[in-house]
Amino acid sequence: MEFEYLEEYIRNSRGVQLFTCRWLPFSSPKALVFLCHGYGMECSGFMRACGTTLASAGYAVIGIDYEGHGRSRGARCYIKKFDNIINDCSEFFKSVCVQEEYRNKRRFLYGESMGGAVALLLHKKDPAFWHGAVLVAPMCKISEKVKPHPVVVNLLTRVEEIIPKWKIVPTKDVIDSAFKDPVKREEIRSNKLIYQDKPRLKTALEMLRTSMSLEDSLNEVTLPFFVLHGEADTVTDPEVSRALYERASSRDKTIKLYPGMWHALTSGEPDDNVKTVFADIIAWLDKRMDDENDLNVQIVHHSDPPVENLVAMAPPTPLNRPKQQRRRPHASYLCGWKGRRTHYHSAM
Protein backbone atom coordinates (compact mmCIF):
# COMPACT_ATOMS: atom_id res chain seq x y z
CA MET A 1 0.00 0.00 0.00
CA GLU A 2 1.27 3.45 -0.87
CA PHE A 3 1.70 6.12 1.78
CA GLU A 4 3.38 9.48 2.24
CA TYR A 5 5.60 10.95 4.91
CA LEU A 6 5.32 14.47 6.32
CA GLU A 7 7.36 16.39 8.89
CA GLU A 8 6.33 19.55 10.70
CA TYR A 9 7.48 21.73 13.58
CA ILE A 10 4.92 23.01 16.08
CA ARG A 11 5.25 25.13 19.21
CA ASN A 12 3.90 23.98 22.55
CA SER A 13 2.13 26.08 25.20
CA ARG A 14 5.52 26.96 26.76
CA GLY A 15 6.84 28.28 23.45
CA VAL A 16 9.21 25.35 22.80
CA GLN A 17 9.58 24.15 19.21
CA LEU A 18 8.67 20.46 18.85
CA PHE A 19 9.21 18.10 15.92
CA THR A 20 6.31 16.04 14.57
CA CYS A 21 6.02 13.52 11.75
CA ARG A 22 3.36 11.42 10.01
CA TRP A 23 3.11 8.36 7.79
CA LEU A 24 -0.21 8.63 5.94
CA PRO A 25 -1.82 6.15 3.53
CA PHE A 26 -3.13 7.69 0.31
CA SER A 27 -6.47 6.01 0.87
CA SER A 28 -8.65 6.82 3.87
CA PRO A 29 -6.88 5.26 6.90
CA LYS A 30 -8.41 2.47 8.93
CA ALA A 31 -7.64 4.39 12.12
CA LEU A 32 -5.13 6.77 13.71
CA VAL A 33 -2.12 5.46 15.63
CA PHE A 34 -0.19 7.95 17.78
CA LEU A 35 3.43 7.14 18.65
CA CYS A 36 4.86 7.68 22.14
CA HIS A 37 8.59 7.00 22.00
CA GLY A 38 10.83 5.86 24.81
CA TYR A 39 13.30 7.74 27.00
CA GLY A 40 16.07 9.34 24.97
CA MET A 41 14.56 8.15 21.69
CA GLU A 42 12.88 9.90 18.75
CA CYS A 43 10.28 9.18 16.08
CA SER A 44 11.53 9.99 12.59
CA GLY A 45 14.49 7.61 12.59
CA PHE A 46 14.23 5.22 15.51
CA MET A 47 10.49 4.58 15.04
CA ARG A 48 10.51 4.76 11.26
CA ALA A 49 9.98 1.01 10.87
CA CYS A 50 6.91 1.26 13.07
CA GLY A 51 5.55 4.15 11.02
CA THR A 52 6.16 2.55 7.65
CA THR A 53 4.89 -0.89 8.70
CA LEU A 54 1.63 0.36 10.18
CA ALA A 55 1.07 2.83 7.32
CA SER A 56 1.57 -0.02 4.84
CA ALA A 57 -1.16 -1.86 6.74
CA GLY A 58 -3.53 1.07 6.23
CA TYR A 59 -3.12 3.08 9.43
CA ALA A 60 -2.28 6.79 9.72
CA VAL A 61 0.70 7.02 12.06
CA ILE A 62 1.52 10.27 13.86
CA GLY A 63 4.55 10.91 16.06
CA ILE A 64 6.08 13.70 18.15
CA ASP A 65 9.53 14.12 19.70
CA TYR A 66 9.12 15.19 23.33
CA GLU A 67 10.75 18.40 24.50
CA GLY A 68 14.51 17.86 24.70
CA HIS A 69 14.31 14.69 22.61
CA GLY A 70 15.23 14.00 19.01
CA ARG A 71 14.69 17.02 16.75
CA SER A 72 12.70 19.00 19.30
CA ARG A 73 14.22 21.96 21.12
CA GLY A 74 14.99 22.06 24.83
CA ALA A 75 17.75 20.81 27.13
CA ARG A 76 18.76 17.37 25.93
CA CYS A 77 16.69 14.69 27.64
CA TYR A 78 15.77 16.97 30.53
CA ILE A 79 12.30 16.23 31.89
CA LYS A 80 11.40 19.05 34.27
CA LYS A 81 7.85 17.75 34.71
CA PHE A 82 6.51 14.52 33.26
CA ASP A 83 3.15 16.25 32.96
CA ASN A 84 4.69 18.54 30.33
CA ILE A 85 5.18 15.54 28.05
CA ILE A 86 1.61 14.38 28.64
CA ASN A 87 0.14 17.81 27.98
CA ASP A 88 2.21 18.36 24.82
CA CYS A 89 1.21 14.96 23.40
CA SER A 90 -2.44 15.45 24.33
CA GLU A 91 -2.67 18.87 22.70
CA PHE A 92 -0.92 17.77 19.52
CA PHE A 93 -2.66 14.41 19.15
CA LYS A 94 -6.10 15.96 19.69
CA SER A 95 -5.31 18.73 17.21
CA VAL A 96 -4.88 15.96 14.63
CA CYS A 97 -8.01 14.07 15.68
CA VAL A 98 -10.18 17.18 15.30
CA GLN A 99 -9.32 17.54 11.62
CA GLU A 100 -12.34 16.98 9.40
CA GLU A 101 -10.91 13.93 7.66
CA TYR A 102 -10.13 12.19 10.97
CA ARG A 103 -13.04 13.09 13.25
CA ASN A 104 -14.83 9.78 12.74
CA LYS A 105 -11.70 7.61 12.91
CA ARG A 106 -10.73 5.40 15.81
CA ARG A 107 -7.80 6.58 17.87
CA PHE A 108 -5.07 4.28 19.21
CA LEU A 109 -1.98 4.98 21.29
CA TYR A 110 1.30 3.15 20.68
CA GLY A 111 3.92 3.37 23.41
CA GLU A 112 7.35 1.78 23.78
CA SER A 113 9.15 1.61 27.15
CA MET A 114 8.75 5.06 28.75
CA GLY A 115 6.29 5.77 25.94
CA GLY A 116 4.09 3.09 27.47
CA ALA A 117 3.84 5.26 30.59
CA VAL A 118 3.05 8.27 28.39
CA ALA A 119 0.27 6.32 26.65
CA LEU A 120 -1.27 5.18 29.94
CA LEU A 121 -1.16 8.71 31.36
CA LEU A 122 -2.81 10.07 28.21
CA HIS A 123 -5.58 7.52 28.78
CA LYS A 124 -5.80 8.57 32.44
CA LYS A 125 -6.05 12.24 31.40
CA ASP A 126 -9.07 11.52 29.19
CA PRO A 127 -10.30 7.95 29.82
CA ALA A 128 -13.11 7.95 27.25
CA PHE A 129 -11.15 9.45 24.35
CA TRP A 130 -8.89 6.61 23.22
CA HIS A 131 -10.09 3.39 21.63
CA GLY A 132 -7.08 1.29 22.59
CA ALA A 133 -3.34 1.12 23.17
CA VAL A 134 -0.41 -1.02 22.07
CA LEU A 135 2.18 -1.12 24.86
CA VAL A 136 5.60 -2.54 24.02
CA ALA A 137 7.70 -3.32 27.14
CA PRO A 138 6.01 -0.44 29.00
CA MET A 139 7.50 1.48 31.91
CA CYS A 140 4.47 1.34 34.20
CA LYS A 141 5.94 -0.18 37.35
CA ILE A 142 9.40 -0.30 38.91
CA SER A 143 10.63 -3.86 39.23
CA GLU A 144 11.39 -4.87 42.80
CA LYS A 145 14.79 -6.00 41.52
CA VAL A 146 15.89 -2.43 40.68
CA LYS A 147 13.70 -0.20 42.86
CA PRO A 148 16.00 2.24 44.74
CA HIS A 149 15.98 2.35 48.52
CA PRO A 150 13.71 5.09 49.96
CA VAL A 151 16.71 6.65 51.73
CA VAL A 152 18.52 7.09 48.40
CA VAL A 153 15.41 8.64 46.81
CA ASN A 154 15.04 11.00 49.76
CA LEU A 155 18.65 12.19 49.48
CA LEU A 156 18.38 12.82 45.75
CA THR A 157 15.05 14.61 46.16
CA ARG A 158 16.67 17.09 48.55
CA VAL A 159 19.10 18.31 45.88
CA GLU A 160 17.01 17.95 42.71
CA GLU A 161 16.06 21.64 42.63
CA ILE A 162 19.68 22.67 43.23
CA ILE A 163 21.30 20.54 40.51
CA PRO A 164 18.32 19.36 38.40
CA LYS A 165 20.26 19.02 35.13
CA TRP A 166 23.36 17.33 36.48
CA LYS A 167 24.15 14.01 34.83
CA ILE A 168 25.00 12.20 38.03
CA VAL A 169 22.68 9.21 37.95
CA PRO A 170 24.72 6.02 37.41
CA THR A 171 23.27 3.63 34.88
CA LYS A 172 24.32 0.65 32.82
CA ASP A 173 24.62 0.78 29.04
CA VAL A 174 20.96 0.38 28.05
CA ILE A 175 21.78 -0.05 24.37
CA ASP A 176 23.84 -3.16 25.07
CA SER A 177 21.00 -4.52 27.20
CA ALA A 178 18.08 -3.59 24.94
CA PHE A 179 19.17 -4.43 21.39
CA LYS A 180 19.96 -8.05 20.67
CA ASP A 181 21.03 -7.78 17.02
CA PRO A 182 24.64 -6.44 16.96
CA VAL A 183 24.21 -4.67 13.62
CA LYS A 184 21.07 -2.87 14.79
CA ARG A 185 22.80 -2.07 18.07
CA GLU A 186 25.53 -0.20 16.21
CA GLU A 187 22.94 1.58 14.06
CA ILE A 188 21.35 2.87 17.24
CA ARG A 189 24.72 4.06 18.54
CA SER A 190 25.30 5.99 15.31
CA ASN A 191 21.94 7.80 15.57
CA LYS A 192 22.98 11.17 16.99
CA LEU A 193 19.37 12.08 17.74
CA ILE A 194 19.27 9.40 20.45
CA TYR A 195 20.46 10.49 23.88
CA GLN A 196 23.26 8.21 25.11
CA ASP A 197 24.62 10.08 28.15
CA LYS A 198 23.82 9.56 31.84
CA PRO A 199 20.30 10.56 32.94
CA ARG A 200 19.93 13.99 34.50
CA LEU A 201 18.99 14.02 38.19
CA LYS A 202 15.51 15.53 37.87
CA THR A 203 14.75 13.44 34.80
CA ALA A 204 15.53 10.22 36.68
CA LEU A 205 13.41 11.28 39.65
CA GLU A 206 10.49 12.30 37.43
CA MET A 207 10.59 8.90 35.72
CA LEU A 208 10.75 7.15 39.10
CA ARG A 209 7.83 9.12 40.52
CA THR A 210 5.79 8.55 37.36
CA SER A 211 6.40 4.80 37.43
CA MET A 212 5.51 4.55 41.11
CA SER A 213 2.35 6.59 40.60
CA LEU A 214 1.30 4.40 37.68
CA GLU A 215 1.99 1.28 39.72
CA ASP A 216 -0.44 2.51 42.37
CA SER A 217 -3.18 3.18 39.80
CA LEU A 218 -2.98 0.24 37.37
CA ASN A 219 -6.52 -0.71 38.36
CA GLU A 220 -7.70 2.59 36.81
CA VAL A 221 -6.69 1.44 33.33
CA THR A 222 -9.91 0.74 31.44
CA LEU A 223 -9.13 1.04 27.75
CA PRO A 224 -8.52 -1.99 25.49
CA PHE A 225 -4.81 -2.74 25.32
CA PHE A 226 -2.27 -5.19 23.96
CA VAL A 227 0.89 -5.42 26.06
CA LEU A 228 3.96 -7.13 24.57
CA HIS A 229 7.18 -8.00 26.36
CA GLY A 230 10.32 -9.99 25.72
CA GLU A 231 10.86 -12.64 28.40
CA ALA A 232 14.62 -11.96 28.33
CA ASP A 233 14.15 -8.19 28.81
CA THR A 234 16.53 -6.83 31.46
CA VAL A 235 15.64 -3.15 30.95
CA THR A 236 11.98 -3.37 31.99
CA ASP A 237 11.14 -6.61 33.77
CA PRO A 238 8.33 -8.69 32.22
CA GLU A 239 6.70 -8.70 35.66
CA VAL A 240 5.78 -5.09 34.88
CA SER A 241 3.56 -6.15 31.99
CA ARG A 242 2.13 -9.05 33.95
CA ALA A 243 1.15 -6.65 36.74
CA LEU A 244 -0.54 -4.34 34.26
CA TYR A 245 -2.46 -7.20 32.69
CA GLU A 246 -3.57 -8.64 36.03
CA ARG A 247 -4.55 -5.40 37.73
CA ALA A 248 -6.04 -3.33 34.88
CA SER A 249 -9.84 -3.03 34.88
CA SER A 250 -10.03 -3.23 31.08
CA ARG A 251 -12.53 -5.78 29.78
CA ASP A 252 -10.50 -6.14 26.57
CA LYS A 253 -6.87 -6.82 27.42
CA THR A 254 -4.24 -9.03 25.83
CA ILE A 255 -0.71 -9.93 26.89
CA LYS A 256 1.97 -11.71 24.90
CA LEU A 257 5.41 -12.64 26.18
CA TYR A 258 8.09 -13.56 23.64
CA PRO A 259 10.57 -16.23 24.82
CA GLY A 260 14.19 -15.23 24.37
CA MET A 261 13.44 -11.72 23.11
CA TRP A 262 14.96 -8.60 24.65
CA HIS A 263 13.65 -5.09 25.34
CA ALA A 264 13.61 -3.57 21.84
CA LEU A 265 11.05 -5.91 20.27
CA THR A 266 10.45 -3.79 17.16
CA SER A 267 13.93 -2.40 16.57
CA GLY A 268 16.60 -4.58 18.18
CA GLU A 269 15.62 -8.14 17.38
CA PRO A 270 16.57 -10.16 14.26
CA ASP A 271 14.31 -9.35 11.31
CA ASP A 272 12.17 -12.50 11.61
CA ASN A 273 11.38 -11.68 15.23
CA VAL A 274 10.51 -8.07 14.36
CA LYS A 275 8.15 -9.26 11.62
CA THR A 276 6.43 -11.58 14.09
CA VAL A 277 5.92 -8.77 16.60
CA PHE A 278 4.54 -6.35 14.01
CA ALA A 279 2.26 -9.05 12.61
CA ASP A 280 0.82 -9.54 16.11
CA ILE A 281 0.34 -5.78 16.56
CA ILE A 282 -1.42 -5.36 13.21
CA ALA A 283 -3.62 -8.38 13.87
CA TRP A 284 -4.67 -6.90 17.21
CA LEU A 285 -5.45 -3.51 15.65
CA ASP A 286 -7.32 -5.08 12.73
CA LYS A 287 -9.48 -7.11 15.10
CA ARG A 288 -10.50 -3.93 16.92
CA MET A 289 -11.51 -2.47 13.57
CA ASP A 290 -13.75 -5.49 12.88
CA ASP A 291 -15.24 -5.70 16.38
CA GLU A 292 -19.02 -5.48 16.01
CA ASN A 293 -19.35 -4.48 19.66
CA ASP A 294 -17.55 -1.18 19.18
CA LEU A 295 -18.73 0.31 15.92
CA ASN A 296 -19.73 3.70 17.29
CA VAL A 297 -16.94 6.27 17.05
CA GLN A 298 -17.44 9.50 18.90
CA ILE A 299 -16.93 12.59 16.74
CA VAL A 300 -14.36 14.74 18.53
CA HIS A 301 -14.29 18.50 19.03
CA HIS A 302 -10.95 19.89 20.11
CA SER A 303 -11.05 22.06 23.23
CA ASP A 304 -7.38 22.14 24.27
CA PRO A 305 -5.30 25.22 23.41
CA PRO A 306 -4.27 25.00 19.74
CA VAL A 307 -0.68 24.19 18.91
CA GLU A 308 1.17 26.66 16.74
CA ASN A 309 2.54 25.28 13.49
CA LEU A 310 5.87 26.45 12.09
CA VAL A 311 7.49 26.12 8.68
CA ALA A 312 7.95 22.49 7.64
CA MET A 313 11.47 21.20 7.36
CA ALA A 314 12.78 19.19 4.43
CA PRO A 315 11.86 15.49 4.71
CA PRO A 316 14.53 12.81 5.06
CA THR A 317 15.57 10.50 2.28
CA PRO A 318 12.78 7.95 1.74
CA LEU A 319 13.32 4.29 2.52
CA ASN A 320 11.86 3.22 -0.79
CA ARG A 321 11.19 5.27 -3.88
CA PRO A 322 7.69 4.79 -5.33
CA LYS A 323 7.38 3.32 -8.78
CA GLN A 324 4.84 6.00 -9.56
CA GLN A 325 3.92 9.03 -7.50
CA ARG A 326 0.26 9.89 -7.26
CA ARG A 327 -0.51 13.56 -7.79
CA ARG A 328 -2.42 15.52 -5.20
CA PRO A 329 -4.33 18.78 -5.67
CA HIS A 330 -2.08 21.83 -5.51
CA ALA A 331 -1.48 23.24 -2.01
CA SER A 332 -3.42 20.50 -0.28
CA TYR A 333 -3.33 20.25 3.49
CA LEU A 334 -2.75 17.29 5.79
CA CYS A 335 -3.70 17.41 9.45
CA GLY A 336 -4.31 21.13 9.07
CA TRP A 337 -0.73 21.96 8.05
CA LYS A 338 0.79 22.45 4.66
CA GLY A 339 4.24 21.02 4.07
CA ARG A 340 6.53 19.04 1.82
CA ARG A 341 5.83 15.35 1.42
CA THR A 342 7.94 12.31 0.77
CA HIS A 343 6.19 9.46 -1.01
CA TYR A 344 6.82 5.79 -0.33
CA HIS A 345 5.67 2.59 -1.94
CA SER A 346 5.41 -0.74 -0.18
CA ALA A 347 4.61 -4.15 -1.51
CA MET A 348 2.54 -4.91 1.63
UniProtKB/TrEMBL annotation:
<dbReference type="InterPro" id="IPR000073">
    <property type="entry name" value="AB_hydrolase_1"/>
</dbReference>
<dbReference type="Pfam" id="PF12146">
    <property type="entry name" value="Hydrolase_4"/>
</dbReference>
<dbReference type="InterPro" id="IPR029058">
    <property type="entry name" value="AB_hydrolase_fold"/>
</dbReference>
<protein>
    <recommendedName>
        <fullName>Serine aminopeptidase S33 domain-containing protein</fullName>
    </recommendedName>
</protein>
<feature type="domain" description="Serine aminopeptidase S33">
    <location>
        <begin position="28"/>
        <end position="270"/>
    </location>
</feature>
<dbReference type="InterPro" id="IPR022742">
    <property type="entry name" value="Hydrolase_4"/>
</dbReference>
<dbReference type="InterPro" id="IPR051044">
    <property type="entry name" value="MAG_DAG_Lipase"/>
</dbReference>
